[in-house]
Amino acid sequence: MKRFFSTHAARIIALTVVFALALAIRLYDLTDLPLEFHSTRQLLSALKARGMYYETRFDVPPEERAFAIQQWKFRASVEPEVFERIVAWTYRFTGEKVWIARIYSSAFWLIGGLFLYLLARRLVSDDGAIAATAVYLCLPYGVIASRSFQPDPLMTMLIVMFLWAVWEWSSSSKWIHVILAGIFGGLAIYVKFPAAFFVAGGGLGAALSHRSMKEAFKNPQLYAMIVLGILPGAAYLIHGIFVEDYLGQQFSGRFIPALFLSPSYYVGWLNMLNLATGGFTLGLALLGLFFFEDKKLRLLLGLWAGYALFGFYFNFHISTHDYYSLPLIPILALSLAPLADFLLSKLAGLTNTKLLRLSSFLFLFIGIFASLWNIRNQLNAADYRPEAAMWAEIAAKTDGYNLAGLTQDYGARMAYWGWRNIASWPTSGDLIYGGARGAGRDLEDFYKELVAKKELFLVTDFDDLERQPFLKEKLEAYPVFAEGDGYAIYRLR
User: Fold this and answer.
1) pTM of the prediction?
2) Stretch 32-56: mean pLDDT, rounded?
3) Is the Cβ–Cβ distance between 459 and 471 less than 8 Å?
4) Are strands 480-484 and 487-491 parallel, antiparallel or unpaired?
5) Comparing 79-83, 208-212, 255-259, 288-292, which segment has the lowest mean pLDDT?
6) Rounded to 5°, angle at Cα 194 from 193 and 196
7) Going by DSSP bridges, is the β-strand pair 403-406/423-424 parallel, antiparallel, or unpaired?
8) Rg of the chain's alpha carbons, rounded to an integer?
């Protein structure tokens, strides 16, 4: 079979160009505020990192230091604060620059791309591996998501590293790969528990690729890998649930059995998939499964099964949070590899002169560049930097008042840039979520309780206010205390 990237030099050049473009687009607009992608989750990590950093500082006003530490301790801890610790440690050398997290997240994703290439070339070929790596690094949703300050890019990197190690083990049975797979898989689960579905699915698929079920489960290396993989996450869960008792509530409400009878669950999941991968790309990836050899196919089937079980367990979030499908991107890229290999081999046969071969190279990279240019335009379309001044302005105008509000990110923007706490009114999404869990609340009683304790009510999320006629009617009865570009403050007394 002819190879499109037929020489070692051509492969090196192709990979260098793909990685360079992938890095460049991730560093574009680097210093903008972390509000372009799931800002609530990003600001949670930003507030925690600042609190950790301020704990080591005694050269700042005591009230600022106390507030930063309080915000860190007060906010929910679902996962271990690994990424936040790394960023807080870096602040000691750079100062508090929240965009540092973008550099780390981008680096995590690119490292994952290197290991994905190493795995894909073992599953298919160099041609298929280069194509899979390009999809993994340059898929539009993946570019935006992999810049975010949240543990998911780090988790995805560790999952890919685990998949490489476990496949190497399945082929060679070397203890070094057992240890590496156990460490990478265990760290992935420790960083974020949902990785367990992908680690278990991929591990089982790799184990069965060269052995029968009976032989696999007689292998002591498999159990050594499982123990290494389970220990870090299990220790964190036991400590968080039974010792400190702060994780039990965080895991509640992730699984809602009633959703399985609701068409909105399946439509929502499909919408999230379409947003994260694109329907056409998803269809090609599923078609690519038919091009795998039987033994290698088992790895991919294990990964797809892991994703399906993950979606069934986290059924509310998989249908409402697009970044829950982020670990699907490397699975999708690997699934596309044999189909890409087939097409590139046909293209290699057609480009039988240097001019045709050079033209085909250029056309392929023009396509990648055009896709990344669209992402650049998307990043350039919004500048969030002025928001920092707006929140500082609101904080100055409401100084000395007890404050409630309907704002973006449950008051996290006020906490980060305004250095003020705010009692958050639930969003329309929260009310829907509560109803789905059977935990709806009486809005009249909740409103009376809130008004009794607060003097001002801040609104910055006007779109959500329009979806809440009850709250809008209540606020219209009060005079406006202050307003500006992007906010309105009502006097409740």
Assistant:
1) 0.93
2) 96
3) no
4) antiparallel
5) 255-259
6) 80
7) parallel
8) 25
